[in-house]
Specification:
By secondary structure, the protein is of the alpha/beta class. It has 16 helices and 22 strands. Helix content is about 40%, strand content about 20%. The longest helix has 17 residues. The structure holds nicotinamide-adenine-dinucleotide.
């Protein structure tokens, strides 16, 4: 089906935008314009929030449906998404440069799995539970949806990160207004078609494409009851400030600077651990929040680690993101390309040793927003590239002397989102993982699972997505006290 790119998806219907400006979307690999959609205005946001509010307040509407009926709708949406998954991942790959092989592993399976997980959860979760009283007979604790949600989504893993908000919000019975990033809007129009085909009732889901000003307008809108934000720590701070003034609940999934701790008994054979290590440190061109971009290497095996990581990164195929064999594609935008290039320059200027990649474009590529996947050795944990989030394919290898020293360096960061421990001793790895100040950590690999809470501490965020905790963020609790 051909999508109408002249309209906006507001409350489940395609309607003409109230403004005339448009967002042109370019291919990150070729820089060519590949599509355009309306740039929503504040008036479009007003309309979206108004229909969401009407749907939410309808006493026989979505928010009052039996959970099992909503669960069926989520499952229909999973099916409709999956029918369109090939088109969606191709659009993502063109827009943000995500290698298509990675999009197949990430953006194709995760959204459906997340929808089915929350369908199952809401089916099983009782709306009410009774608790024995201490001063009274008992209390009935009742769950209800939190209201109209504003979801702000970044461009790096656009469908999965959108679904971490949409699925639990829908499961809980909320209405939602989604603002995708301007870099990745074409895939979201396909999702809108899936939402319509899944017969999610009128008013419940709206999509308003636009930039940060539109996001700021949506976040502070008087008709919004809760904000869910994924993006940079700077953006999240602005959103949190706006929500604090309104005493509006907000969940924040922000940046990271995670550690990949290689213990001295780790298996460094790339044929066995190379793929998992690459996925945990450089997947999606380094544009993933949880990647372990500070590689902590034991001094006793430092040269071996440097050689292995440099060999791994030097061997990856760089190219057009839509090619099957590409492992590193372009950055998502010229701004991202400039940002990452600047960090590579800073790393060199501050004295880090370049053992793979370096400044400039890859030699055989003359268009697209590419950088060279780069590995720095001999990095001090106080260096700029070790402290700040680069959000590109740049790794810094830092030496440590003991497990305690590795833990101290891993924890010496403003962030606390991801992390990995690499070891042949499961118990030792688990005890290092337990000591790391972070919201999530993987042993000999890293794959977030929809069943378990995901989120950060320190400047990496507030709150959790995924798991039952991710649903609780969209629910309100009411205690009804019973005297006898
Ligand atoms: P960004 O903060 O620039 O933008 C993210 C989204 O927020 C976009 O839709 C943008 O338009 C909107 N936005 C920005 N400022 C806003 C404001 N003041 N008010 C309302 N909306 C605003 O981030 P980005 O460059 O798109 O994404 C990359 C960042 O996202 C990285 O820092 C990365 O670590 C982080 N991220 C975090 C997670 C996580 O789960 N913790 C996941 C993915 C990405």
């Amino acid at each position: 089906m051909t999508i109408d790119h002249s309209s906006l998806f507001l409350g489940g219907r395609w309607v003409k935008p109230l403004g005339s400006s448009r967002i042109d979307v370019r291919s990150a690999s070729t820089e060519e314009v590949i599509g355009s959609v309306p740039d929503a205005t504040d008036a479009d946001v007003d309309a979206a929030v108004a229909v969401a509010r009407r749907a939410f307040d309808d006493p026989s509407g979505w928010s009052h449906w039996e959970p099992a009926r909503r669960a069926e709708a989520l499952e229909r949406l999973a099916e409709e998404f999956e029918k369109r998954a090939d088109v969606i991942i191709d659009l993502i790959s063109q827009q943000n440069g995500m290698p298509i092989s990675i999009a197949r592993q990430l953006e194709a399976p995760f959204p459906g799995a997340i929808l089915r997980f929350y369908a199952e959860l809401i089916r099983k979760q009782p709306v009410e539970e009774r608790r024995d009283g201490i001063f009274i007979e008992s209390t009935t604790v009742r769950r209800s949806p939190i209201g109209v949600v504003a979801a702000i989504v970044p461009w790096n893993v656009p469908q999965t990160l959108l679904m971490t908000k949409l699925a639990p919000a829908l499961a809980a019975g909320c209405s939602i207004v989604i603002k995708p990033s301007p870099e990745t809007v074409l895939d979201v129009f396909e999702l809108a078609e899936a939402i319509a085909a899944a017969q999610i009732p009128e008013g419940v889901v709206s999509i308003v494409p636009g930039g940060r000003e539109l996001g700021a307008y949506l976040v502070s809108h008087p008709g919004i009851d809760k904000v869910a934000f994924t993006g940079s720590t700077a953006g999240g701070t602005a959103v949190a400030t706006a929500c604090a003034k309104l005493l509006r609940p907000v969940s924040l999934e922000l940046g990271g600077k995670s550690a990949a701790v290689i213990l001295d008994d780790a298996d460094l054979d790339l044929s066995r651990m190379g793929e998992a290590f690459f996925a945990a440190t450089m997947a999606n061109n380094g544009q993933v929040c949880f990647l372990g971009t500070r590689v902590l290497a034991p001094r006793s095996r430092y040269d071996e680690v440097v050689d292995a990581v440099a060999a791994l990164v030097s061997s990856v195929k760089i190219g057009d993101a839509t090619d099957d064999d590409t492992l590193v594609g372009p950055m998502a935008s010229p701004t991202q390309q400039q940002r990452v290039s600047r960090y590579i320059d800073i790393g060199i200027k501050e004295g880090a040793r370049v053992v793979a990649g370096g400044a400039g474009m890859p030699t055989d590529i003359d268009r697209g927003w590419f950088v060279r996947p780069t590995v720095f050795a001999d990095v001090d944990n106080n260096a700029t590239v070790a402290r700040e989030e680069v959000f590109g394919p740049v790794l810094s290898i830092i030496a440590y002397d003991s497990d305690a020293d590795a833990i101290a360096i891993a924890n010496d960061s403003d962030y606390g989102l991801g992390g990995t421990v690499w070891s042949t001793d499961e118990d030792r790895a688990t005890s290092v993982a337990a000591a790391m100040q972070t919201g999530t950590v993987g042993i000999n690999g890293y794959i977030p699972d929809p069943g378990a809470p995901f989120g950060g501490i320190k400047r990496s965020g507030i709150g959790r997505e995924f798991g039952a905790e991710g649903l609780a963020a969209y629910q309100q609790l009411k205690s009804i006290y019973r005297m006898q």
